[in-house]
Model the fold of this input.
Amino acid sequence: MHEDLHIRSSIVMMQRIMEHGIEQGEFEDRITDTSLTHYFTPVSEEYGCAQYARELFMPAGTICVGKLHKLPHLTFLMKGRMIIVSENGGYQEMVGPTTFVSPAGSKRAFHVLEDSILTTVHVTKYSTETEVPLIEDEVISPTYEAMGLEEPDTTGLEIFLSDHSSHTNEE
Done:
């Protein structure tokens, strides 16, 4: 697993700044402009696992940060064009359709240039919509540390955001 702490820190800081901006009403939360569809295969008796796909539609102009993935998985940009930044691939402009492998420890920032559909496929023990939280526990890590990786230091950013929040609340 390749670690580029500068890119990792930049992605985590970008995510925190966006979350803070949404909380403060400074940024528009575009989550309602996206749509997420889940697909499942039955558990294979031969292999003892199922496959789970997440298909995410993102409109042009969307900027977002994805989840931190515990395991390698397949990713398909079905249509559209976006800039993707990750510590595994650096800065890449991708045009769909294209397929790539997302390594374990992947967390990406996306700038969607054209309406896009991105699909990830994960091997899992579960195979129903009601088990999506269990699947997410299986494939998504809450922190880098939980994966045995170094957490980015965002202390300075947290102090800045805290100061910014208190100034904004005083106005």
Remarks:
- The first helix runs from residue 5 to 23.
- Strands lie at 35-40, 50-58, 63-65, 68-69, 73-86, 90-95, 98-102, 108-124, 140-141.
- The two ends are 46 Å apart (CA to CA).
- The mean pLDDT is 89.
